[in-house]
Design goal:
824 residues, Rossmann fold, 13-stranded parallel β-sheet, five-stranded parallel β-sheet, globular, repeat, coiled coil
């Protein structure tokens, strides 16, 4: 929601919290808070309406400025409330029971009184600013912004795909043959059935162009044919009329002027017309399964060998249509041929030597997307020969992905991709724009990304799902809408890493700049930085590039800092990050213990990642981070944790990766009341470790990397009522040692997902059989097993799978089983 409504989604609940008795605010202050909350709720609704304005009817500049000011104000109000809460938190630390303790308590009462008085003054000031913004809302007629369209949203750029020159269709011939084969192959009986093929891929790949090539090639073989575009917000009556008109322009020549026919009547008319005809229909640009299902009602199955092609950017829609053809980017050689053909007129001509290297870089950024290649090539082809210098070509290369180039061609390309962004709900818009903080071609670990989204407050609970599960749904939906690309699929058939295509990165960087959502320092970002930076990404840059440095004033507004650069000079100014909520120093080996003093004074931190740093110990001042919710310290040389660690009462997620954890720290973590997700390494797993972990009251997700199992035991370790894991829903246990435990009846009653590494041969050699007690896990839904180990023979693999299937078959919940064999 944040990119649409600023901090409203987190601010409004905060204002509600201030009304609670624990804050003991004056009655007049509470009344003003209620007024602010009501006004801001109304403004939030207006911001959502502004974000949904039709693409071809954007709000005027005054309305955009009003929206920007409201979002800025929401951030400032939330920062102010946060400071108030932090001051109170710091004052609530326990003092010794002594005379000095009495003095401290008396001073606290005075100080808290001053803090409450200050918040009262601040609320009055905010109220006057809210009134001024509210007055401008009426003056600028903000509420008269055009509502979200329910009729057709046209995009003239789509029409251009129908009139591409043959020489621009490089790589299309082979793909069109694939589609033709899908439509025509099969025996005589099969050929009589209605056959449907869906072409899916993100904007600019050439779906419409490819579909049109096939359509023009085959349409003459059918009794009738039609090509209709659906678009984002279709007028279904108009679409069905257009379909009838194309099917028979004589009989339905006046259908477009007919207003009396209902949608149901039009569908019936189409079915009647197609009843005994062999038809070929192309449905272009479908955005919604319900729209497709509506169209599908008109496409009668008449055993005449009819064919349908549909194009979409959304995988779920393609699956609903059937016959999915995932359109891939052009190969390197086809990309090069298309690029040079557009510039020089012939595809086998090459540029001068001085331009060859930079042209390859440009092609690399285009990523095989025909629209991007043609657009960039057109920019270069339009220049006179003496202007086509290395300097100019390199400038074009640098502008790509930065969101800064305003060439009409690039703007057109962004418009096509922008429709996909516009179609997203507000929460997904925010999560997508957040990806602009990553460098190009960066493999983004989804687990890390989801927890960062949570730390930023982008994800909100949905009924029956944890925040992390909601985040997994967000990732799946961005993949489904072809906005991110899955790079690695894990055994659970989920993307464990994703990548953003350079053209999508260009779009979201442009939008991030426009919304002042995120600023990048380094990389290819060379623009001046805004006066108020909310999120900052530090990236590596060429030494010759002069990068603008942020002022201390602009740093005071930064809420999120992510560092990819080896230049850590900005970390010396950490004390100036007054409201920093998320700090990601992953992979910064230069970060050491000397940085921890400043980090421990970032009182507003919710997310802290020290993964891959050189920090070896955490100081006792970590207790200052009372609002910290997520801590990542995997891949560090951490040796020492302070006793004050237990004071981090809001921690919900700790990721230590495969770092071995002392039992002392394990016991400390068991006292954290909110801890719901834990990833740790344990050298030797003992029964007492499972008892400690099993007693954690809020633990929902547990991943353990085991070195080996407790030595000296001659029987399986049983997970029973001594380690009940009352809240656990997901359990992953992997490592070098083999799994030699069983689940007793009545334990892990909420467990839904279980991931195991099983060394089948070792278990067989030691115990003679396979027993795990999976039938006792009454809520279990999915089991994922990585069968590992050298020397396991096929018969043992089959026996292991059979034993697992037998236990799951007895389980009344009938869980699914996925087994992957990994030889060592």
């Amino acid at each position: 929601m944040e990119v649409v409504t600023g901090a409203m989604s987190t601010l409004l609940p905060l204002l509600g919290d201030l009304l609670k008795e624990e804050y003991n605010l004056q009655k007049s202050t509470k009344g003003e808070i209620k007024f602010l909350k009501a006004e801001l709720e109304s403004m939030e609704a207006a911001l959502i309406k502004i974000s949904e304005a039709p693409l071809d009817q954007p709000p005027n500049i005054q309305v955009k400025l009003w929206a920007r000011d409201v979002k800025d104000l929401s951030y400032e109000i939330e920062d102010g409330i946060d400071k108030f809460r932090v001051h109170l938190e710091c004052r609530q630390q326990k003092k010794p029971h002594s005379f000095m303790g009495f003095i401290h308590k008396s001073m606290d009462m005075l100080t808290k009184g001053k803090i409450r008085h200050k918040i009262g003054i601040d609320i009055k000031d905010i109220k006057s600013r809210i009134k001024e913004v509210s007055d401008r809302r009426e003056r600028y007629k903000v509420d008269s912004v055009a509502p979200k369209p329910t009729g057709t949203s046209t995009d003239t750029l789509r029409q251009l795909a129908l009139f591409k020159k043959a020489e621009e269709l490089i790589g299309t011939k082979e793909k069109s043959l694939d589609i033709v084969k899908m439509l025509t192959e099969g025996d005589e009986v099969f050929k009589k059935h209605l056959k449907m093929v869906s072409i899916v891929g993100f904007g600019g790949l050439g779906k419409t162009t490819l579909a049109n090539v096939v359509y023009e090639k085959l349409r003459g073989d059918f009794d009738c044919a039609a090509f209709v575009s659906v678009s984002l917000n279709p007028d279904m009556k108009k679409l069905f009329k257009c379909l009838l008109h194309q099917l028979d322009k004589g009989e339905y020549k006046n259908i477009m002027d007919e207003s009396a026919w209902s949608e149901t009547q039009l569908i019936s008319e189409i079915r009647d017309f197609l009843r005994d005809k062999r038809y070929f229909i192309l449905i272009d640009d479908i955005w919604d399964k319900s729209v497709w299902n509506n169209i599908r009602c008109a496409l009668i199955e008449n055993e005449c060998g009819s064919r349908v092609i549909a194009t979409t950017r959304i995988l779920d829609v393609a699956k609903e249509v059937g016959g999915v053809y995932q359109l891939k980017p052009l190969s390197t050689s086809d990309s090069r041929q298309l690029f040079y053909q557009r510039i020089f007129g012939i595809g086998d001509k090459r540029p001068p030597i001085q331009l060859a290297e930079v042209s390859e870089k440009i092609l690399g950024k285009c990523g095989g997307v025909p629209l991007a290649i043609i657009t960039l090539a057109s920019m270069l082809a339009g220049k006179k020969e003496h202007e086509n210098t290395y300097t100019y070509w390199y400038k074009v290369y640098q502008s790509m992905g930065s969101g800064l180039e305003n060439n009409p061609g690039l703007m057109d390309m962004r418009r096509i991709l922008h429709v996909s962004y516009y179609d997203l709900p507000p929460n997904l818009k925010t999560c997508l724009l957040y990806l602009s903080l990553y460098p190009e071609d960066y493999n983004i670990e989804t687990k890390e990304l989801i927890w960062k989204w949570i730390g930023e407050g982008f994800i909100h609970e949905e009924q029956g799902k944890s925040l992390y599960e909601v985040g997994e749904d967000y990732i799946a939906e961005l993949i489904n809408k072809s906005l991110v690309q899955p790079m690695y699929i894990n055994i659970a058939n989920k993307a464990s890493s994703v990548r953003v295509h350079d053209m999508v990165l260009d779009l979201i960087t442009s939008l991030s700049n426009e919304e002042n959502f995120l600023a990048t320092l380094g990389g290819q970002q060379t623009r001046s930085l805004p006066s108020k930076i909310r999120r900052l990404s530090l990236q590596s840059s060429n030494e010759e590039d002069v990068q603008p440095m942020p002022t201390m004033s602009s740093l005071s507004h930064v809420r999120s800092l992510t560092v990819f650069s080896k230049d850590l000079s900005l970390l010396s100014a950490l004390s100036g990050f007054l409201v920093l909520r998320a700090l990601d120093l992953s992979g910064c080996e230069e970060v050491g213990n000397h940085h921890m003093k400043d980090i421990c004074n970032l009182f507003h931190l919710r997310y802290l990642s020290l993964e891959g740093t050189s920090i070896t110990e955490i100081p006792k001042e970590i207790s200052n981070l009372r609002l910290l919710q997520l801590l990542v310290i995997r891949s560090t040389k951490m040796k020492k944790f302070p006793s004050t660690f237990v004071q981090l009462g809001q921690l919900v997620f700790i990721d230590m990766g495969n770092r071995e954890v002392s039992r002392l720290l394990l016991k400390s973590m068991s006292t954290l009341p909110s801890l719901s997700s834990l990833a740790i390494g344990i050298g030797e797993l003992r029964e007492e470790d499972l008892q400690i972990l099993g007693s954690m009251p809020s633990l929902h997700d547990l991943s353990i990397d085991v070195g080996y199992w407790e030595r000296g035991r001659d029987k399986r370790l049983v997970i029973d009522s001594g380690s009940p894991f009352r809240s656990l829903t997901r359990f992953s246990i992997k490592g070098c040692g083999f799994i030699d435990f069983m689940f007793a009846q009545g334990t892990l009653q909420k467990l839904q997902i279980l991931e195991l590494s099983i060394f089948g041969k070792a278990i067989k050699d030691r115990f003679g059989d396979f027993q795990f007690g999976l039938e006792n896990l009454s809520s279990l839904e999915h089991v994922y097993v990585d069968a590992r180990g050298r020397g396991i023979i096929p018969s043992q693999e089959a026996e292991l799978s059979g034993a697992l299937e037998k236990e799951l078959d007895i389980n009344p919940n009938k869980p699914t089983l996925t087994v992957k064999v990994t030889p060592r």
